[in-house]
Amino acid sequence: MITEIAILDVKKGQEKSFENTFKEAQKIISSMNGYISHSLQKCLENNSRYLLRVEWETLEDHTIGFRESSEYKQWKELLHHYYEPFPTVEHYGKNL
Amino acid sequence: MITEIAILDVKKGQEKSFENTFKEAQKIISSMNGYISHSLQKCLENNSRYLLRVEWETLEDHTIGFRESSEYKQWKELLHHYYEPFPTVEHYGKNL
Predict the structure, then answer these.
(1) Domain boundaries, chain B
(2) Which CATH number is associated with domain A2-92?
(3) What tens digit of pLDDT does each residue of B22-32 get?
(4) What is the pTM of this model?
(5) What is the least distance, in Å, from the CA of B27 to any CA of chain A?
(6) CA distance B42 to B62
(7) A90–B45: do the CB atoms touch at under 8 Å?
(8) Residue A16 half-sphere exposure toward CB, CA atoms < 13 A
(9) Under an 8 A CB cutoff, do B45 and A96 touch?
(10) What angle do CA B36, B37, B41 make, to 5 degrees?
(11) Contact B44 A5 (CB under 8 A)
(12) ipTM for the whole complex
């Protein structure tokens, strides 16, 4: 199991719209092969920042299975225009 | 419940020593009032990077209860010399 982590900075004023759109978009990611669970949490210090965590069975379930899928195109269309700057995504291994 | 998040960049070559020291240091944080759980995960893309997550009952359990305690002095002495740059710590609210 691996954890995908992205700090999402959303354009000012678009926070509520992003949150509502994410409620729809999360159905996409939840349906993918290798998906285990996810969470979206809002930063207490920065009103436009969110932490997205997604647990995947393997790294490739995210980097290939999801990112090269037609579902990813929908995900991008729904969400990517909210981000500024575009987020860096990293992956983390099991709990030490 | 809130989540403390810190991306920890450890000095090159000190990764194993940091991991071993953290095994001791985690006993400190686990004993604090308001502590719920924690995890330390190693980054797959960057060998010197770790993700620390700590769940606390309230923000103040971390920012006051822990950071103003004598136990925090021990935590600092054990761990802070490993970090470069010194990490930014943020807090995130409940799952949206």
Answers:
(1) 2-92
(2) 3.30.70.100
(3) 999 999 999 99
(4) 0.95
(5) 14
(6) 23
(7) yes
(8) 1
(9) no
(10) 160
(11) no
(12) 0.94
